[in-house]
Every structure is written in C-alpha cells, then in structure tokens.
Design a protein that fits this description.
This protein is of the alpha+beta class. It is built from four helices and four strands, in the order αββαββαα. Strand 1 and strand 2 form a beta hairpin. It has one domain. The structure holds zinc ion. The site of zinc ion has 4 residues, from helix 1.
C-alpha cells in the first residue's frame, strides 16, 4: 500500500509517495505525520490523502467557508495545516461567488421541510 512518507523520514520522490499540496500547507505540514489532539492529548494521525477518505474526516460549515473536522484526524489536520486561516476563507468565499466552491460532490443535500 502507498503511504505519503516525508522525504526527510525516508520516503521516496516517486509519484506514488507524493501528494499535491500548496506551498503554505506543505510548509505547515513539514515532516509531521501525526499531531496531538488538544482535547484528548492523544497522538493522532494526520489525514493521509493516499489512505483516508476526505468525507470520513471533514465536512463544510453551512456557508461552506469553514472546514470542520468530524474525527480526531480531521481536527488535528485542520489545526496543523491551519486550513481555516483567513487567507483560505477569502479564497473559498471568492470561489463560492463564482461557483468554483464547494466541489459538486460536497454540496449539502437539501433538507426536507
Ligand atoms: Zn494549501
């Protein structure tokens, strides 16, 4: 099975070990593969795009501007990568305004009355 192992931790530069990330997220993540969840004090694995399913760990706020972690992995990943930082919220809002956010498959189902 493929894992995204940081180069500094012995991972390879092969495409099967790489994940697309912007410079800022990549810098925040660094070599970390896990982080401490504040509530529990437990060491928790960061979201691994090669092993984990996005929807099992994250959902969007009602207005789609904030990412919400629904598991310990989701929460520590948001915290570690600062995925709700002001700059990203601004980008999400601008993308929302022109229909580029959220991804179609993430649109909340319309709630029955
Ligand atoms: Zn990023």
């Amino acid at each position: 099975m493929d894992h995204v192992i940081p180069l500094s931790m012995g991972g390879s530069n092969d495409s099967t070990n790489l994940a697309l990330a912007c410079f800022h997220c990549n810098r925040r993540k660094g070599r970390a593969q896990e982080a401490i969840e504040p509530e529990s004090g437990e060491k928790v694995a960061l979201f691994n795009p090669r092993l984990d399913t996005w929807r099992q760990h994250f959902r969007w706020s009602e207005d789609y501007l904030h990412l919400i972690g629904i598991t310990p992995t989701g929460r520590v990943t948001i915290e570690t990568l600062a995925l709700n930082r002001e700059r990203i919220i601004g980008i999400r809002a601008a993308d929302y305004a022109v229909g580029r956010h959220p991804p179609l498959e993430d649109i909340h189902p319309i709630k029955p009355d």
